[in-house]
Amino acid sequence: MGVPSVFLRTFGCNFTCSGFGMPRGELSMEAAGIAATHSLVTPFQKYEDLPLVSTGCDSYASWMPEFKDLSPMLESNAIVNRIMEILPYRRWEDEHLVITGGEPLLGWQRAYPELLDHASMAGLKEITFETNGTQKLTPEFKKYLANWIDSNADGHMRNSNSLTFSVSAKLPCSGEKWEDAICPEVVCEYEQVGTVYLKFVIATEEDLKDAERAVDEFRNRGFKGHVYIMPVGGVEQVYALNNRAVADMAMRKGWRYSDRLQVPLFKNEWGT
Ligand code: SF4
Question: How far is the CA of 174 from the centre of ligand 1 (A)?
Answer without folding.
Answer: 9
